[in-house]
Amino acid sequence: MLNMKSGHSKTGPGGASGGPACPVVWLLGKTGAGKSSLVCALTGESAAEIGNGFKPCTRSARSYDFPPEQPLVRFLDTRGLGESGYRPEDDLEACRNRSHVLLVLCRLDDPVQGMVAGALADILRHDRKMPAILVLTGRDLVVDPGALERAERTIAAGMNRAAGRDLPAAVLSLAPGRAADGEGLDVLRQLLLDALPAAGLVLEKTRAGDAEQLEFQKHKRFILSCAGVAFTSDVAPVVGMVAVPATQLKMLHDLGRRYGVKWDRKIGSAFLGTMGLGIGARFAANFGLRELAKLVPVYGQTAGAAAAGAISFATTYALGRAAAYFLYRTANGSPPGEEELRQVYRRAFDRSSNEAG
Protein backbone atom coordinates (compact mmCIF):
# COMPACT_ATOMS: atom_id res chain seq x y z
CA MET A 1 0.00 0.00 0.00
CA LEU A 2 1.09 3.54 -0.62
CA ASN A 3 1.69 6.05 2.14
CA MET A 4 -0.27 9.00 0.76
CA LYS A 5 1.59 11.60 2.75
CA SER A 6 5.16 10.59 2.20
CA GLY A 7 4.79 8.68 -1.04
CA HIS A 8 6.70 5.56 0.02
CA SER A 9 5.43 2.02 -0.09
CA LYS A 10 4.05 0.12 2.85
CA THR A 11 3.01 -3.44 3.38
CA GLY A 12 -0.70 -3.83 2.67
CA PRO A 13 -2.94 -3.35 5.70
CA GLY A 14 -4.19 -6.86 5.48
CA GLY A 15 -0.72 -8.11 6.38
CA ALA A 16 0.26 -11.63 5.60
CA SER A 17 -3.31 -12.87 5.78
CA GLY A 18 -4.54 -10.38 3.22
CA GLY A 19 -7.58 -8.18 3.70
CA PRO A 20 -9.00 -4.96 2.33
CA ALA A 21 -6.55 -2.37 1.07
CA CYS A 22 -7.62 0.87 2.71
CA PRO A 23 -6.06 3.76 4.64
CA VAL A 24 -4.89 2.71 8.10
CA VAL A 25 -5.15 4.81 11.28
CA TRP A 26 -2.83 3.57 14.03
CA LEU A 27 -3.97 4.18 17.62
CA LEU A 28 -0.99 4.33 19.98
CA GLY A 29 -1.49 4.74 23.71
CA LYS A 30 -1.62 3.06 27.09
CA THR A 31 -4.44 0.75 28.05
CA GLY A 32 -7.31 2.96 29.22
CA ALA A 33 -6.32 5.96 27.09
CA GLY A 34 -9.67 5.79 25.29
CA LYS A 35 -8.75 4.17 21.98
CA SER A 36 -11.94 2.11 21.60
CA SER A 37 -14.04 5.05 22.78
CA LEU A 38 -12.37 7.27 20.18
CA VAL A 39 -13.19 4.80 17.42
CA CYS A 40 -16.81 4.83 18.63
CA ALA A 41 -16.88 8.65 18.54
CA LEU A 42 -15.30 8.90 15.09
CA THR A 43 -17.41 6.21 13.43
CA GLY A 44 -20.69 6.59 15.28
CA GLU A 45 -20.70 2.86 16.01
CA SER A 46 -21.74 1.54 19.41
CA ALA A 47 -19.31 0.26 22.01
CA ALA A 48 -20.65 -3.26 21.47
CA GLU A 49 -20.15 -3.04 17.70
CA ILE A 50 -16.60 -1.75 18.12
CA GLY A 51 -15.77 -4.33 20.78
CA ASN A 52 -17.02 -7.21 18.67
CA GLY A 53 -15.50 -5.78 15.48
CA PHE A 54 -11.87 -5.63 16.59
CA LYS A 55 -9.89 -8.67 15.41
CA PRO A 56 -6.41 -9.80 16.55
CA CYS A 57 -3.66 -9.01 14.04
CA THR A 58 -0.53 -9.58 16.16
CA ARG A 59 0.15 -11.01 19.63
CA SER A 60 -1.06 -7.85 21.38
CA ALA A 61 -2.50 -5.69 18.59
CA ARG A 62 -5.86 -5.75 16.87
CA SER A 63 -7.62 -4.13 13.93
CA TYR A 64 -11.09 -2.81 13.16
CA ASP A 65 -12.47 -2.15 9.68
CA PHE A 66 -15.06 0.57 9.06
CA PRO A 67 -17.64 0.13 7.71
CA PRO A 68 -17.40 -3.60 8.41
CA GLU A 69 -19.37 -4.61 5.31
CA GLN A 70 -17.26 -2.53 2.87
CA PRO A 71 -14.16 -1.22 4.65
CA LEU A 72 -12.99 2.29 3.77
CA VAL A 73 -10.66 2.80 6.74
CA ARG A 74 -8.88 0.47 9.17
CA PHE A 75 -7.99 1.21 12.79
CA LEU A 76 -5.00 -0.50 14.41
CA ASP A 77 -4.86 -0.63 18.21
CA THR A 78 -1.54 -1.43 19.91
CA ARG A 79 -2.62 -2.75 23.29
CA GLY A 80 -0.65 -3.20 26.47
CA LEU A 81 1.63 -0.16 26.44
CA GLY A 82 2.64 0.55 30.01
CA GLU A 83 1.60 -2.87 31.31
CA SER A 84 4.09 -4.76 33.42
CA GLY A 85 6.10 -7.32 31.48
CA TYR A 86 4.86 -6.25 28.05
CA ARG A 87 7.54 -5.72 25.40
CA PRO A 88 5.90 -3.97 22.44
CA GLU A 89 8.77 -4.13 19.90
CA ASP A 90 7.28 -6.85 17.67
CA ASP A 91 3.82 -5.29 17.68
CA LEU A 92 5.23 -1.85 16.90
CA GLU A 93 7.20 -3.26 13.99
CA ALA A 94 4.14 -4.99 12.55
CA CYS A 95 1.91 -1.93 12.90
CA ARG A 96 4.57 0.45 11.59
CA ASN A 97 4.75 -1.44 8.30
CA ARG A 98 1.04 -1.16 7.60
CA SER A 99 -0.03 2.30 8.82
CA HIS A 100 -0.56 5.70 7.22
CA VAL A 101 -1.28 8.06 10.10
CA LEU A 102 -0.54 7.75 13.82
CA LEU A 103 -2.88 8.93 16.58
CA VAL A 104 -1.00 9.19 19.88
CA LEU A 105 -3.52 9.01 22.74
CA CYS A 106 -2.62 10.28 26.22
CA ARG A 107 -5.02 10.76 29.13
CA LEU A 108 -4.67 14.17 30.75
CA ASP A 109 -5.05 12.74 34.26
CA ASP A 110 -2.17 10.33 33.68
CA PRO A 111 1.20 12.15 33.63
CA VAL A 112 3.25 8.93 33.30
CA GLN A 113 3.58 8.58 29.53
CA GLY A 114 7.18 7.44 29.17
CA MET A 115 6.31 4.14 27.46
CA VAL A 116 4.18 5.97 24.88
CA ALA A 117 6.87 8.60 24.29
CA GLY A 118 9.47 5.88 23.80
CA ALA A 119 7.29 4.02 21.32
CA LEU A 120 6.57 7.25 19.44
CA ALA A 121 10.28 8.07 19.21
CA ASP A 122 11.02 4.59 17.89
CA ILE A 123 8.28 4.76 15.26
CA LEU A 124 9.31 8.15 13.93
CA ARG A 125 12.99 7.28 14.03
CA HIS A 126 12.23 4.58 11.46
CA ASP A 127 9.76 6.71 9.48
CA ARG A 128 10.26 10.46 9.82
CA LYS A 129 7.51 11.20 7.31
CA MET A 130 4.79 9.31 9.17
CA PRO A 131 1.97 11.82 9.90
CA ALA A 132 1.26 11.88 13.65
CA ILE A 133 -1.45 13.60 15.69
CA LEU A 134 -1.50 13.98 19.47
CA VAL A 135 -4.91 13.23 21.02
CA LEU A 136 -5.22 14.37 24.63
CA THR A 137 -8.20 12.58 26.15
CA GLY A 138 -9.97 12.97 29.49
CA ARG A 139 -10.52 16.71 29.36
CA ASP A 140 -13.51 16.16 31.65
CA LEU A 141 -11.34 14.29 34.20
CA VAL A 142 -9.21 17.31 35.16
CA VAL A 143 -11.59 19.79 36.76
CA ASP A 144 -9.21 22.61 37.71
CA PRO A 145 -8.53 24.83 34.63
CA GLY A 146 -4.97 25.57 35.75
CA ALA A 147 -4.19 21.90 36.25
CA LEU A 148 -5.75 21.10 32.88
CA GLU A 149 -3.57 23.65 31.12
CA ARG A 150 -0.44 22.36 32.83
CA ALA A 151 -1.28 18.77 31.95
CA GLU A 152 -1.84 19.68 28.31
CA ARG A 153 1.42 21.62 28.15
CA THR A 154 3.50 18.98 29.95
CA ILE A 155 2.29 15.98 27.98
CA ALA A 156 2.48 17.82 24.66
CA ALA A 157 6.04 18.92 25.40
CA GLY A 158 7.10 15.35 26.17
CA MET A 159 5.53 13.96 23.01
CA ASN A 160 6.98 16.74 20.86
CA ARG A 161 10.44 15.94 22.20
CA ALA A 162 9.94 12.27 21.45
CA ALA A 163 8.69 13.05 17.94
CA GLY A 164 11.42 15.59 17.23
CA ARG A 165 8.77 17.99 15.96
CA ASP A 166 5.65 19.79 17.13
CA LEU A 167 2.66 17.51 16.73
CA PRO A 168 -0.76 18.88 15.82
CA ALA A 169 -3.03 18.21 18.78
CA ALA A 170 -6.68 17.79 19.69
CA VAL A 171 -7.98 17.93 23.27
CA LEU A 172 -11.27 16.20 23.91
CA SER A 173 -13.54 14.35 26.26
CA LEU A 174 -14.65 10.81 25.57
CA ALA A 175 -17.28 10.79 28.31
CA PRO A 176 -20.56 9.27 27.06
CA GLY A 177 -22.75 11.87 25.38
CA ARG A 178 -20.05 14.53 25.16
CA ALA A 179 -17.64 13.47 22.42
CA ALA A 180 -20.13 13.32 19.56
CA ASP A 181 -20.73 17.08 19.50
CA GLY A 182 -17.54 18.30 21.17
CA GLU A 183 -15.33 20.81 19.43
CA GLY A 184 -12.28 18.69 20.24
CA LEU A 185 -13.58 15.89 18.06
CA ASP A 186 -14.21 18.36 15.24
CA VAL A 187 -10.60 19.53 15.56
CA LEU A 188 -9.40 15.94 15.35
CA ARG A 189 -11.50 15.25 12.26
CA GLN A 190 -9.99 18.27 10.54
CA LEU A 191 -6.46 17.19 11.51
CA LEU A 192 -7.17 13.72 10.10
CA LEU A 193 -8.48 15.29 6.91
CA ASP A 194 -5.28 17.32 6.61
CA ALA A 195 -2.98 14.37 7.35
CA LEU A 196 -4.75 11.58 5.47
CA PRO A 197 -7.74 12.65 3.34
CA ALA A 198 -8.56 9.05 2.44
CA ALA A 199 -9.42 8.44 6.11
CA GLY A 200 -10.57 11.94 7.04
CA LEU A 201 -13.25 12.05 4.36
CA VAL A 202 -14.71 8.78 5.64
CA LEU A 203 -14.76 9.93 9.26
CA GLU A 204 -15.84 13.54 8.88
CA LYS A 205 -19.15 14.47 10.46
CA THR A 206 -22.09 14.87 8.12
CA ARG A 207 -23.59 18.31 8.47
CA ALA A 208 -26.97 19.63 7.43
CA GLY A 209 -26.94 21.18 3.98
CA ASP A 210 -29.09 21.84 0.95
CA ALA A 211 -30.97 19.13 -0.93
CA GLU A 212 -28.07 18.38 -3.28
CA GLN A 213 -25.62 17.93 -0.41
CA LEU A 214 -28.03 15.69 1.45
CA GLU A 215 -28.46 13.53 -1.65
CA PHE A 216 -24.69 13.38 -2.13
CA GLN A 217 -24.26 11.97 1.40
CA LYS A 218 -26.23 8.91 0.28
CA HIS A 219 -23.60 8.15 -2.35
CA LYS A 220 -20.44 9.46 -0.68
CA ARG A 221 -19.24 6.10 0.65
CA PHE A 222 -19.64 4.57 -2.79
CA ILE A 223 -17.50 7.33 -4.33
CA LEU A 224 -14.91 6.93 -1.58
CA SER A 225 -14.75 3.19 -2.19
CA CYS A 226 -14.03 3.85 -5.87
CA ALA A 227 -11.41 6.42 -4.92
CA GLY A 228 -9.87 3.86 -2.58
CA VAL A 229 -9.58 1.35 -5.41
CA ALA A 230 -7.82 3.99 -7.50
CA PHE A 231 -5.57 4.81 -4.54
CA THR A 232 -4.43 1.24 -4.05
CA SER A 233 -3.63 0.74 -7.73
CA ASP A 234 -0.34 2.51 -6.87
CA VAL A 235 0.73 3.18 -10.43
CA ALA A 236 2.42 6.10 -12.18
CA PRO A 237 -0.05 8.56 -13.75
CA VAL A 238 0.77 7.47 -17.33
CA VAL A 239 0.13 3.82 -16.50
CA GLY A 240 -2.90 4.91 -14.51
CA MET A 241 -4.43 6.19 -17.73
CA VAL A 242 -5.31 2.54 -18.27
CA ALA A 243 -6.03 1.27 -14.74
CA VAL A 244 -7.58 4.25 -12.95
CA PRO A 245 -10.00 5.25 -15.74
CA ALA A 246 -11.56 1.79 -15.61
CA THR A 247 -12.50 2.44 -11.98
CA GLN A 248 -13.72 5.94 -12.81
CA LEU A 249 -15.77 4.62 -15.71
CA LYS A 250 -17.58 2.15 -13.50
CA MET A 251 -18.12 4.83 -10.87
CA LEU A 252 -19.69 7.21 -13.40
CA HIS A 253 -21.89 4.45 -14.80
CA ASP A 254 -23.14 3.49 -11.35
CA LEU A 255 -23.66 7.12 -10.30
CA GLY A 256 -25.83 7.67 -13.36
CA ARG A 257 -27.96 4.71 -12.30
CA ARG A 258 -28.14 5.96 -8.71
CA TYR A 259 -29.28 9.41 -9.83
CA GLY A 260 -31.60 8.08 -12.49
CA VAL A 261 -29.71 9.67 -15.39
CA LYS A 262 -28.45 7.62 -18.35
CA TRP A 263 -24.98 8.45 -19.66
CA ASP A 264 -25.90 8.83 -23.33
CA ARG A 265 -23.97 10.89 -25.85
CA LYS A 266 -25.85 14.07 -25.06
CA ILE A 267 -25.45 13.85 -21.28
CA GLY A 268 -21.83 12.71 -21.49
CA SER A 269 -20.88 15.47 -23.91
CA ALA A 270 -22.60 18.03 -21.69
CA PHE A 271 -20.68 16.81 -18.67
CA LEU A 272 -17.29 16.92 -20.38
CA GLY A 273 -18.02 20.27 -21.93
CA THR A 274 -19.10 21.72 -18.60
CA MET A 275 -16.00 20.33 -16.92
CA GLY A 276 -13.95 22.38 -19.36
CA LEU A 277 -11.86 19.47 -20.60
CA GLY A 278 -11.32 21.03 -24.03
CA ILE A 279 -13.14 18.24 -25.81
CA GLY A 280 -13.28 18.97 -29.52
CA ALA A 281 -16.02 18.55 -32.05
CA ARG A 282 -14.69 15.15 -33.12
CA PHE A 283 -15.10 13.81 -29.58
CA ALA A 284 -18.49 15.45 -29.19
CA ALA A 285 -19.64 13.86 -32.43
CA ASN A 286 -18.41 10.39 -31.49
CA PHE A 287 -18.80 10.60 -27.74
CA GLY A 288 -18.78 7.42 -25.73
CA LEU A 289 -17.89 6.46 -22.21
CA ARG A 290 -14.54 5.16 -23.44
CA GLU A 291 -13.58 8.69 -24.51
CA LEU A 292 -14.82 10.03 -21.19
CA ALA A 293 -12.62 7.56 -19.35
CA LYS A 294 -9.57 8.59 -21.39
CA LEU A 295 -10.05 12.31 -20.95
CA VAL A 296 -11.02 12.77 -17.31
CA PRO A 297 -7.78 11.65 -15.57
CA VAL A 298 -5.74 14.34 -17.38
CA TYR A 299 -7.84 17.07 -15.80
CA GLY A 300 -7.18 15.90 -12.27
CA GLN A 301 -3.47 15.21 -12.45
CA THR A 302 -2.49 18.61 -11.09
CA ALA A 303 -0.91 17.72 -7.76
CA GLY A 304 2.68 18.22 -8.91
CA ALA A 305 5.05 15.70 -7.37
CA ALA A 306 2.41 13.95 -5.25
CA ALA A 307 2.50 10.16 -5.22
CA ALA A 308 0.53 8.47 -7.98
CA GLY A 309 -1.81 6.79 -5.53
CA ALA A 310 -2.65 10.10 -3.87
CA ILE A 311 -3.32 11.71 -7.23
CA SER A 312 -5.55 8.82 -8.26
CA PHE A 313 -7.51 9.00 -5.01
CA ALA A 314 -8.03 12.77 -5.21
CA THR A 315 -8.86 12.74 -8.92
CA THR A 316 -11.40 9.94 -8.57
CA TYR A 317 -13.09 11.45 -5.52
CA ALA A 318 -13.28 14.89 -7.14
CA LEU A 319 -14.63 13.42 -10.36
CA GLY A 320 -17.30 11.53 -8.42
CA ARG A 321 -18.26 14.64 -6.47
CA ALA A 322 -18.53 16.72 -9.65
CA ALA A 323 -20.48 14.01 -11.43
CA ALA A 324 -22.89 13.68 -8.51
CA TYR A 325 -23.48 17.44 -8.55
CA PHE A 326 -23.93 17.45 -12.33
CA LEU A 327 -26.31 14.47 -12.31
CA TYR A 328 -28.42 15.88 -9.48
CA ARG A 329 -28.79 19.25 -11.19
CA THR A 330 -29.45 17.62 -14.56
CA ALA A 331 -32.10 15.31 -13.12
CA ASN A 332 -33.80 18.36 -11.64
CA GLY A 333 -33.76 20.34 -14.88
CA SER A 334 -31.04 22.91 -14.02
CA PRO A 335 -27.64 21.72 -15.29
CA PRO A 336 -24.73 23.66 -13.73
CA GLY A 337 -22.53 26.08 -15.62
CA GLU A 338 -18.90 25.44 -16.43
CA GLU A 339 -17.36 27.59 -13.71
CA GLU A 340 -19.78 26.29 -11.10
CA LEU A 341 -18.98 22.65 -11.83
CA ARG A 342 -15.25 23.25 -12.03
CA GLN A 343 -15.38 24.87 -8.60
CA VAL A 344 -17.14 21.78 -7.23
CA TYR A 345 -14.38 19.62 -8.72
CA ARG A 346 -11.57 21.84 -7.44
CA ARG A 347 -12.95 22.02 -3.89
CA ALA A 348 -13.33 18.24 -3.81
CA PHE A 349 -9.84 17.73 -5.21
CA ASP A 350 -8.30 20.10 -2.67
CA ARG A 351 -10.08 18.40 0.23
CA SER A 352 -8.98 14.94 -0.89
CA SER A 353 -5.37 15.78 -1.75
CA ASN A 354 -2.42 15.94 0.65
CA GLU A 355 -0.90 18.57 -1.59
CA ALA A 356 -3.65 21.13 -1.01
CA GLY A 357 -2.29 24.29 0.53
Which labels suit this protein?
357 residues; 7 strands; disordered N terminus; 7-stranded mixed sheet; Rossmann fold; single chain; alpha/beta; 14 helices
How are the SSEs ordered, and which strands pair?
Layout: E1 24-30, H1 35-43, H2 47-53, E2 55-56, E3 61-66, E4 73-81, H3 89-96, E5 101-107, H4 114-126, E6 132-137, H5 145-163, E7 169-171, H6 183-195, H7 197-203, H8 211-233, H9 237-259, H10 265-275, H11 281-285, H12 289-300, H13 308-331, H14 338-351
Parallel strand pairs: 1-4, 1-5, 5-6, 6-7
Antiparallel strand pairs: 2-3, 3-4
Helix pairs in contact: 4-5, 6-7, 8-9, 8-13, 9-12, 9-13, 12-13, 13-14
Q: How would you explain this protein's 3D organization?
A:
It contains 14 helices and seven strands. It has 357 residues and is of the alpha/beta class. It has two domains: 15-203, P-loop containing nucleotide triphosphate hydrolases (Rossmann fold, 3-Layer(aba) Sandwich), CATH 3.40.50.300; 211-351, no CATH class. Residues 1-20, 234-240 and 278-306 have low confidence and may be disordered.
| Number of spatially distinct domains | 2
Order of strands, widest sheet? 2-3-4-1-5-6-7
CATH architecture of the largest domain: 3-Layer(aba) Sandwich
- Global shape: elongated
CATH topology of the largest domain: Rossmann fold
Q: What structural category arises from helix and sheet content?
A: alpha/beta
CATH superfamily of the largest domain: P-loop containing nucleotide triphosphate hydrolases
Number of helices, counting only DSSP H or I runs of 4 residues or more? 14
Mean pLDDT: 79
Radius of gyration: 22 Å
The unreliable regions are 1-20, 234-240, 278-306
Share in helix:
40-55%
Query: How far is the N terminus from the C terminus?
Result: 24 Å
Relative strand content: 5-15%
